[in-house]
Amino acid sequence: MIDLYYWPTPNGHKITMFLEEAGLEYRIIPVNIGAGDQFKPEFLRISPNNRMPAIVDHDPSGGGNAIPVFESGAILVYLAEKTGKLLPADIRGRKTVLEWLFWQVSGLGPMAGQNHHFSNYAAEKIPYAIDRYVKETNRLYGVLDRRLDGLHRGQCLYHCRHSGLSLDRLVEGSAAELGRIPERQALV
Ligand SMILES: N[C@@H](CCC(=O)N[C@@H](CS)C(=O)NCC(=O)O)C(=O)O
pLDDT of 34-85, one tens digit each? Predict the structure, then answer.
């Protein structure tokens, strides 16, 4: 059984999407980030960065004590290695998936977050900050568009030839996109 410390945000959805796709049994433990649950000491022991998502795997491969994992990218790789799903074993496919996974967690996620903060939530409207993050987010969406366009045109890279949905597509794609694609095998 996997405990998922979760709140319904894009970072949380990444993990529920994986768990559903892989058919793993899990239990959701809500972390209400609006109410400050992420700062509770018991959560800090699992997620030292005070952010959700995090998981605790009570049935780790090879047995032993339960394993806590924080950071969405690390959780996805952990689950992929645990199940053998969505992360190709071959060197080329694996590196491609990890490239796009790292791209998402280090680029698109944080930049879109800053964009939304300065554009929508900041009490003081700072044109320089808004311009900087809007431009960078647009650039990243352009990168994503070209990647998805290439995949849809059948120009996908080595790992795409293998069956199953891979982790980079899961991270890039939205739930809507997953539902839109008729044949999963056609994806990868
Ligand atoms: N790098 C982290 C980011 C996680 C993250 O930003 N989580 C947000 C919700 S999407 C959060 O917990 N925010 C709580 C806060 O800002 O205090 C990951 O990929 O897991």
Answer: 999 999 999 999 999 999 999 999 999 999 999 999 999 999 999 999 999 9
Q: Is 96 in the pocket of ligand 1 (CB under 6 A)?
A: no
Q: Among residues 83, 110, 144, which one ends one of the domains? A: 83
Listing DSSP states for 60-118 in one string gives -TT-SS-EEEESHHHHHHHHHHHHT-SS-SSHHHHHHHHHHHHHIIIIIHHHHHHHHII
Q: Is the pTM of this model over 0.90?
A: no
Q: Ligand 1: distance of its center to the CA of 33 in Å? A: 9
* Owning domain of residue 126: 91-187
Q: Which DSSP state fits 152?
A: H
Output the CA 51–ligand 1 centroid distance in Å. Answer: 4
| Residue finishing a domain among 45, 64, 83 | 83
Contact 69, 2 (CB under 8 A): no
Pair (41, 99) in one structural domain: no
